[in-house]
Design brief:
Layout lengths: L2 E7 L20 H12 L5 E5 L4 H8 L7 E4 L4 H14 L4 E6 L7 H11 L4 E7 L4 E4 L5 E5 L5 E10 H10 L9 H7 L4 E5 L10 H10 L5
Parallel strand pairs: 1-2, 1-4, 2-3, 5-9
Antiparallel strand pairs: 4-8, 5-8, 6-7
Helix pairs in contact: 1-4
Length: 224
């Protein structure tokens, strides 16, 4: 099994207000933390970083001196386009399995990465997930509570998510050209393929807003 990692960070950071992956976490930038997490867990795996087209020069100058084997590729307008660009690059180099990770999750734990890889087996995919500790409500457009959902069989989707490259290619070929999906697991699910869930054992916060940055810095001892 030839495995590669794809770290996806091509978003515009609209809710953050700028390039959140270039924010300083004390011992490095957000994207650098995410790449190092993948490298620590899978040191032999080729790495692809998907970045915004207008930030390629910045990231090339920042990353390549310390990681000359890292491949950079420009992402697309949607997350799914960026993932595909990264996976297709890895596939051209012979990858049979890809570990797709959102660069905005820089604190992912090494053991959780390895657990998802180990869970893949013969399935099309395996994803890191989080149990929901809070009561879950369903509301309507007027914000009226309609229902309380049982949460035992509900999970929040995290990354990394690990996929058989052949399964992704098959799903892409059969998918509606104009279709959209929030992650590749949803794409494989819609195609009737098996995806395993692995409960995360460690915190794995996502950087979306400025308040999330303060949390990440605090967890690393780099901020209040």
């Amino acid at each position: 099994m030839k495995l590669a990692t794809v770290c996806v960070g091509a978003g515009v950071g609209a809710r953050f207000g700028g390039d959140k992956l270039a924010e300083d976490l004390g011992a490095g930038l957000v994207l650098e933390f995410s790449l190092e997490a993948l490298r620590s867990a899978l040191p032999e795996a080729p790495m692809v970083a998907v970045v915004a087209e207008d930030r390629r020069d910045f990231w090339r100058d920042r990353l390549i001196p310390d990681c000359p084997d890292l491949q950079l590729v420009a992402g697309g307008q949607r997350r799914q386009d960026s993932v595909r660009a990264g996976v297709e690059l890895a596939a051209r180099d012979g990858a049979e399995v890809v570990v797709v990770h959102d660069a905005a999750r820089p604190l992912v734990d090494r053991s959780d990465i390895l657990a998802v890889v180990d869970a893949l087996g013969e399935a099309a995919g395996a994803i890191l997930t989080a149990r929901i500790p809070d009561t879950v409500k369903r509301v309507d457009f007027d914000h009226r509570v309609i229902d309380t959902l049982p949460r035992d069989d509900l999970r929040l989707a995290l990354t990394p998510q690990v996929f058989q490259v052949a399964a992704l290619i098959e799903a892409w070929r059969s998918a509606d050209a104009g279709g959209e999906w929030t992650d590749e697991s949803a794409l494989l699910e819609s195609a009737g393929m098996t995806v395993h869930s692995v409960d995360a054992r460690h915190p794995n916060p996502k950087l979306t807003r400025v308040s999330d940055l303060r949390l990440l810095q605090a967890l690393l001892g780099a901020g209040p």
